[in-house]
Prior knowledge:
The complex is a heterodimer. Chain A is an alpha/beta fold. Chain A has a single domain (2-215), classed as 3-Layer(aba) Sandwich (Rossmann fold), CATH 3.40.50.300. Chain A has helices spanning 41-49, 74-80, 96-105, 111-124, 140-152, 170-185, 197-203; strands spanning 2-10, 16-25, 30-34, 56-61, 64-65, 81-84, 158-162, 189-193, 206-211, 214-215. Chain A is globular, with a radius of gyration of 17 Å. In chain A, 44% of the residues are buried. Chain B is an alpha+beta fold. Chain B has two domains: 5-58 and 168-296, no CATH class; 63-158, 2-Layer Sandwich (Alpha-Beta Plaits), CATH 3.30.70. Chain B has helices spanning 5-22, 24-61, 76-84, 97-107, 138-149, 161-202, 205-213, 218-252, 269-293, and strands at 63-68, 89-95, 126-131, 154-158. The longest helix of chain B has 42 residues, at 161-202.
Amino acid sequence: MIQMFHVSKSYEGGVPALVDVTLKIPKGEFLFITGPSGAGKSTLLKIMFGSEAPTEGQIILDGRNYVRIPSSELPALRRRIGFVFQDFKLLPNKTVFENVALSLKVMGVAPSDVKRRVARMLSYVKLQHRANFKPLSLSGGEQQRVAIARALVKDPAIILADEPTGNLDPSLSVQIIELFREVSSRGTTVVVATHDKMLIEKYGRRTVALEGGRLIG
Amino acid sequence: MSKSGSADLVYIIGDALRSLRENAGTTVLTSFTLAFSLAIFSLFIFVITNLNGVVEGWGEKTQLIVYVKDASVGQADSIRQALAAIPGVKSAEFVSKEKALAQLKEELKGHDGILDGVDANPLPASFEVRVREEFKQPEQIAGIAGSIKALDWAEEVQYSREWVEKLSAFIRFIQLAAVATGIFLGAATLFIISNTIRLGVYARKDEIEIMKLVGASDMYVKAPFVLEGLLQGLFGGLLAMFILALGRYAVLSEIPSYLRFAVEMPFSTALFLAFLTGAGMLMGVAGSLISMNRFLKV
């Protein structure tokens, strides 16, 4: 359960990125955040992820207020949230397997469990045959699925995805959203930021729209 | 949050070792930079320490020679006591007429003929007076010379006023130059080392960011860098020692023997090695941690 109350964010010398956003996302919900580029979608996700602090307002995750999260508590927060980045953020000199395993290793999961869970997750996103490849030798769609596997493998309570279909063709986009839908149906909260109207219409999920940093619907 | 603390440690060490292998090139480069910087700085410390020793040795030799009237030679003991009682006098050594002649003969070795026909000993007896460390200023030495001259058994007091003044000015100059050069060289060394380390960390800023984003603790991210910093420092220190030894061996036969003192090792080898590797490891680890700090805030 994510709750945001009157959250605003402004950067020094810039226009406000978010203005008075109040939003409740119940556990297990699949939510689209939409809006044009620069509307504040990424900022909203970053605030939920604890990598940016709001200038004003409160954010509560599972009953815990995370407005000014001490840096020592950030790792714990991030182990509960799987973030899928627009630019994937994969380590180019590590294999697909190692990239996915990283999010379990930093949690101290035992090596045998890591092996089992990563292998299962790679076959879930249909990349088991790419386990020993380096990310840069994969297609954009495959890299995106590696990033998603890395976010999902730790069984997070929340998945945040920033334009996960931004670089993909329509059929691949549908595959990716199907993956998220499945995860959501098992109780994981999923928040997807996208400007792809087609996807939103196709799935008919709850959608909030941002414009100029304000929620408009 | 971690399910198993021991697995944590296994991963941290394992990842640190793996990253060391993957970044072997950078580690070697940084080690060499550390080594050469430390070696140059050490060479400077060597030369300065040795030079200081020599200059102090010269100062040690600063002394007055007091020639004793022939009539007073019999009172050598009481004269010595009188000299020792003068403030600033460290010691007074009696040189008898015979000893003076023997010294002269020694100095004229090979030219013995010069002294042929000299029957009576024409040399006066004298006292070589050494001055205390805190009385080495030219005006103080002049004062001591004045008080000795006032004694009635003293024929003449000899010291080179000009030499004493020049020497003391030279020592001051050397010390000032050493401090200035040391500061300059030390700053340059730190600058070169910290930049090399910073470049190495910068090349891996994405890795640091991604580790943090998937929930790695700061310790997990820092561990490989600390280990690399330690190893770089250790290699760098050992290599610096090797460079110095090799360099010394190479120049030793090329330089005149009266200048060899400058490349002598002024400290114990073990102590110096401990200093080099210690300084190297400290710089390696501190440099890494400082450089990566700003990339940890994601």
